[in-house]
Design goal:
The chain is of the alpha+beta class. It folds into 2 domains: about 1-85, Glutaredoxin; about 95-205, Up-down Bundle (Glutathione S-transferase Yfyf (Class Pi), Chain A, domain 2), CATH 1.20.1050.10. It is built from 9 helices and 4 strands; from the N terminus they run E-H-E-H-E-E-H-H-H-H-H-H-H. Strands 2-1-3-4 form a 4-stranded mixed sheet, covered by helices on one side. A hairpin with a 2-residue loop joins strand 3 and strand 4 (about 65-70).
């Protein structure tokens, strides 16, 4: 792997950080991971030192030299423009718009509603039980995947991956969201095209090596 002088502030189970790890792997870029535990001691993301890195108190954050880039899609597009080999955005404006649109369904409409701080707020302010919290997550995940399934199944641009036959930013976002869906017990049977694309992605080492359980700060084996 090429060494781009990169540091990634990450948490093993963060789906947003998972997206960036996939992108880095697809581009063959070496990165130093800086773990930020989102649960231990009330969440290391709230510490003043990390707030100077990311005032939102969120991961991921990418450091490239003295530059800090925040928000997973912005990071992926930065990587694509800075390290253009193995592009994650297609060649034409139409194709790029489709990839960005699919990505935003996940990043803007699905992921935020199941974010840790949202779930903690539901528990703290509305006394949501674990069962109610997980029902909330499954509801929004299902709505999102229904739309993505239709967007993929009804478009001739869908190939082995979300757009054509090479992985793009959309696949970087799709696979982590499916990981979350399984974690919270969503039935994925209604989404055959989504599952087919995921299967193709997980056939690549770049996706497998980015998985939460494969991370240095992840759970111990067994």
């Amino acid at each position: 792997m090429a060494n781009g002088g990169l540091r990634l502030y990450s948490y093993w189970r963060s789906s947003a950080a998972y997206r960036v790890r996939i992108a880095l792997n697809l581009k063959g870029l070496d990165v130093q991971q800086v773990p930020v535990h989102l649960v231990r001691d009330g969440g290391e993301q709230h510490a003043p030192g990390f707030r100077r890195v990311n005032p939102q108190g969120l991961v991921p954050t990418l450091q490239h030299g003295q530059r800090l880039i925040r928000q997973s899609m912005a990071i992926i597009e930065y990587l694509d423009e800075t390290f253009p080999d193995e592009p994650l955005l297609p060649a034409t404006a139409r194709e790029r718009a489709r990839v960005r649109g699919l990505s935003q369904v996940i990043a803007c409409d699905m992921h935020p509603l199941g974010n840790l701080r949202v779930l903690q707020y539901l528990e703290r302010e509305f006394k949501a039980t674990p069962e109610q919290r997980e029902a909330w997550i499954r509801h929004w995940l299902a709505l999102g995947f229904e739309a993505i399934e239709q967007l993929l199944a009804d478009n001739p641009s869908t190939g082995s991956f979300c757009e054509g036959d090479a992985p793009t930013m959309a696949d970087c976002l799709l696979v982590p969201q499916l990981y979350n869906a399984r974690r919270f017990g969503l039935d994925l049977a209604p989404y055959p095209t989504v599952r087919r694309v995921e299967g193709n992605a997980l056939g690549l080492e770049a996706f497998r090596a980015a998985a939460p359980e494969a991370q240095p700060d992840g759970p111990p084996p067994g």
